[in-house]
Every structure is written in C-alpha cells, then in structure tokens.
Amino acid sequence: MKAKAIIEVVVFLDSLKTIGIFLLDEGMYQIRINLYIQSSQNLKIPLTPKETLLFKRNEQQYLPQHTIDNFYMSDAFLLRQWTEEERFEIKNGCRFSGAIPHNLKEQPCFMEIELMYYDLAQKIVSFQSISIAKFKIENLSNGIYEYVPVILGEDHFSLLNIMVICSLTSFDIQLQQVQNEDKKGADQHLHINMRQLYNKVLEPLKTSYRNMQTFYYNMELEMERPSSSGGMQYHVRQTKNFQVMSLSSADSLLKNEQNTQLISKVMANEFKVLQSTINQLWHKIIIGLKLGHQKILRQLKKESLTNFQSRYSAFTQKEVIPVVDHQYTMIPQQQKQSQEQADLQSKRLEYQKLLLQGPSKIVDLKIIDEIKDKLMIVEKHYVTRQTFQLSRSKLHLIVLVHGYQGHSYDMRLLENYMCLRFPQHMLLVSLCNQQNTEGDILQMGKYLSDEIKNYIATWSYTDKLVISFIGHSLGGLIIRAALPYLDFEFHTFLTLGTPHLGNVTNQRPLIKFGMWFFQKLKKSLSLSQLNCYDDTLLKLSQFPGLNKFKHIILFGSQQDHYVNSESSLLMKVSGIENEQQHNEMATNILRQLHQNEVLRISIDYKFYDGDFDTFLGRKAHIAILESHFLNQYIIYNLGDYFK
C-alpha cells in the first residue's frame, strides 16, 4: 500500500511592529512566505498556497495579497519616513496544502518568512528581500495551533505576529493490486493492506481529529466569552463525539482472515466518514478564525509565553537557597566545581533534545543553531522571607548601560527585545559615557545620574516612577556609582559580566598583561581602578543604593576570562592571592543585600571554534549581547522581575 498524507496549513498574519522606525527606508513593504518538507536527501517538497484569506479589508490596498508559484505574498503596506506609526495591521492569511509521501510524514517542515522592500524611486516595481526568518516545525501531522513571534532583521528589528494552524486532513491511498493469485493468497494480501491501512492511515487521522476537535471546541468557548474575561480553559464540551473503530476491535477483526472482505468494506467506510468529518471540521476552524481571529490570537499569545518559559527552563538548572543570618554562600570548593562542570557536560545533549520536545513545536532556526550543545544555565536563587510587589500604577523606566570601550549600540538587541516584551515601559540606553570609558568610574556614575534625571524631566509625565537597571561589564559599576545621586524607587538591578570586585583575583597572565598594557597605552584610569591600584572599588563597595532594589540578578561565566565569575557573581573566595581585598569588598556589598532577592546565574558555554576571541575569553564576555537565545531567556524567564 502506498499513501500520501494531505497536510493543510493556515498562516494568519496579524500585524508588523517596528522598533526604531527610522532604520527602515521609505518605500513599500510586504511579507513573503513559503513552506516545504525536506527529506534526509535534502529534497524539498513544497506545500502549495491554495487560497488567500482576508480577515479584514485593507482600506489602503496598494498591492493586494496573492500567490506566485510556491510563495504567498501579503498585502503591501507603505512606510514613509515621517510617519509616526510603529504598527502595521496586515490581517491577511493563506491556506497551504501538500501531499507528502508517508515515509516523509514525520520529517520536519520548514517555514521561511521574508520582509520584502520596494524603493518607490524605482520605475519598475520589484520587491527585494531585506530580512528572512526560518522556522522548523516538528510533528506537523499531529496538528499544531500556535502563535509565533517572528523577529525580522537585527538592524530593522521588526516583530511580525503570526498564527499557524496546521493538521493532517486526509490520505491519498493506492492499494497494491494482486495478480495471478488464488483466493486464499488474495485474501492474505488484502488482509496485509487492511492492517497497513489501519496503522498508517486511520490511527494518524484519529490523532489529528482529536487534536483538531479539542482546538475547535475551545475556539468556540473563547469566541463566546466576552472580551473582558479571562483566557479559555481547555475543557472539551460534552457533545456527541464522532466514533471511530478502536484499535482493539480492529485487531480482533483483522486476526480473523475469513472476514477480510467484510473488514475491508468496514474500514473503507470508516476512512471515508473520518475524512469527511475532518474536512468539515477544518473548514469550520477556518471560518472561526475569520470571525474571531483576534480573540484566538490573544489566547494563543498567553499560551506561547508559558511555552517559551518551558523551553528555556529545559536548559536551566535551578536551585533555591534560603539566606540564613544574612550569609551568602561562598564559592564552592574546586572539587565541587569540577563535579558541576561534569554534570553539565553530560546533560548538554539531553537538554538539546528537549528543545523540540516542549509544548511549542515551532522553533526559530537561529535559536537552534545558537544552542545545539553549546550552553547551559545554572540559576541559584538566594531568597529571604521578605517579598516585594511592584506598584502597578507607577511608570517603569529601564536603563541600559554599556561596558568598557562600548557603545549604546552594544545594548541594542536587548533593548529591542525589552521594547517588544514591555511596550508600556520607558527605556533609556545610556549615551553619556560611550566616548569616555577610560575615565574615573565614580565620575562616570555622576554623568549617568545626570542623564537619567534629564531624561525623566524631558520625557516622563511624572517623577513618581520606578527604575530598573541593566549593565554590561563596566556598565554595572557605573550604575552602582550613580545610585547615591538618584532619589527614586528602584526595582531590579541586573548585571552581565560586571567586575563588581575588580580583577584582583584574575590569575590569567595574558589577561593581566593585556589590561596592564592597555592601561599604560591609553592611560586608562578605569582599568587602573579595576585592577585595584587605588581604593576606588573599595569606596564603591560602601556606596549606598543596592539595598533599595527588590531584586539583584548577576550573570557570570567560567569561560569569561575578562571578568572572573567570582567577581561577576559577587562570591567570596578562599586560598588564592589577594583574597582579603576581594572578600572585604564582597562583604561590604553583600551586607547591603540582607533583604533583597539575589539571583546568581552562571552560563556554561562550550565553543567549538578555536578563534582568538575564544582563546582570550572575550567571546564569553560579549556572547550574551549577541545571543537571541539568551536575550529571549532574559525577557521570558526573567521577565517577571521587570513587570
């Protein structure tokens, strides 16, 4: 028996939201989508766009949605440089369909989404691709009903909100003909065909139907619920259910070869009825999407947040440590560290498999390429009895500060993700020190405080707000130096590879020589202070301000040779050179945090390319600024700390 699975996919494009609109050139834009199954021999089997779907009429229809070959093109929308719009309503969709050989049914499907651009100055209308996002879709035939946030371009950085609904709807079956056989042989051959029909066709269709039925019933519940109510609950209604042959009854019938002719008729009828029922239900779902797409999309967004958190939690080892008598754990002994590293190494591949085994079956390929078996995250939560709640009525300002010899652009990826996750918050990316990170750390802190005050006075409608800070490397120290000058309510303080305790315990000769060389070459006061050639960091450790934060989040990495994890994670040490100076600063800082929730996050990287940045340890120091996975981990798994 030969069978081809008929796969149906509906892609609904809701809206495109741009961040930094002036980075997009004036002109016409549209979205292009194609889907295909890729075999193990890299043979691409396209899913053909069968029908364009209009969910809302576009008043300014410059170029309507259409299909070209195996590509779907959305409505075109016009962007002018002087426009203040940051969100473009698209409300288009397309139904794709494809007949997939049964042996490729379990192969992943790939979805490519492109942002196309046409320059109005050109006489000939020709759209060019300026950004592309690729997704891998697993278990397509079981049914997928998901909201997918599509990030298009790092420079343009636009968020395309789409909804993907797909299901197995039928099979194209060809039974093998029997020639020149007696009746007994023909019956045996038919019996084999019937068993294959059940295992390869009826069982997958039943699974697809059950998943489709659950989604449809809950879609109806959501559409009937008033808009102001909560999300839909996944409870299937008590309605008449379509009955299909059970596996046990089919097996019992199939074992009796005398009933082969009768069974073939019964199973053929089961297939026709099941196929007809699935097609009817599929068309009802499409009609329901047209009528209630906003409610359905809103609920799927809520579910996707949980799915994202589950996905990134799969790469995280989490430990909750109560703080007793205001004492924070010292750094583990070397033997314990080695054991932890061995445990992480053994679990890398295990967690890699979990990436596509979570609730979400649609994964961005750039996330897969970033992770593979390259990293693990270790969270250690130090909690006190005191709990904090943010006043929901207050405006929230998030300040991002770059590091040594850095630029505001270094924080752009995290800034963009923060804008998408928290559109109601104000964001300030510090500019005041980007030309002067060689100066005095304490003075740079004063410059930052003045910049924050001026920003609030210029852009905020109230001074009754709360402030959270995110600092990379030296930026974390600059933030601490600014705190005494700021009389505001603080919420979360997050640092990424910040040398809170300087570099006095850095035992790597190459790094120590490099810092000494740059200090002499550039006459850098800040590098001199980081090496504790004066008492600046000791004074800074006594500065007030950290105690005003509800949450302290510290990122560090053993592979970061620029900044020791003992310094970035604020951990005391023992048995090494300069430990007294290091521990004195640590004690001064930790003494302030007796009522704070402290979260130490250690990222364990494994880099396979032996380039010079990896050798120096710089790659681990800047990886978090360039990693989509880690930035998404911050906004999804740590997002509650910034609400």
TrEMBL record:
One family from Pfam that matches here is DUF676
Q: What Gene3D superfamilies does its record include?
A: alpha/beta hydrolase
Q: Which residues form the DUF676 domain?
A: 393-567
Single biological process term from Gene Ontology = lipid metabolic process
Q: Which domain of life is it from?
A: Eukaryota
Q: What InterPro entries does the record tag this protein with?
A: AB_hydrolase_fold, DUF3657, DUF676_lipase-like, Lipase-like
Transmembrane spans: none
Homology family: Belongs to the FAM135 family.
**What's the protein called, per UniProt?**
DUF676 domain-containing protein
